[in-house]
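User: My collaborator sent over this chain with a note saying "see what the structure looks like." That's all I know about it. Can you take a look?
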Amino acid sequence: MRKRKRYVYVVAGVMDFSANYDGVQLVVSEKFGAHSSFSGAQAELGKILAEAMKERDDLGYELNQGSLDIEYSDGTFEEYHIYKMLLN
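Assistant: Without extra context I'll predict from the sequence alone. Here is the result:
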């Protein structure tokens, strides 16, 4: 009997604060980064956007099926993507 392939969906992002001389950070949440479904990972992108909008109102964003881009008026930006990974 063949084993069925199992996948996990990981939300990872890059936050670039170079405009403020604070550098670049890779963001993967231990608690909320991995999901068993694509729809769960998409919901996580929505939560990230909601949190960003709550913290600052000087942003523009583009939310797609598998990614989220946020740009702030000071040049800071964040990019998040959903990665489909095969479990070993």
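A starting point for your reply to your collaborator: The longest strand covers residues 7-16.
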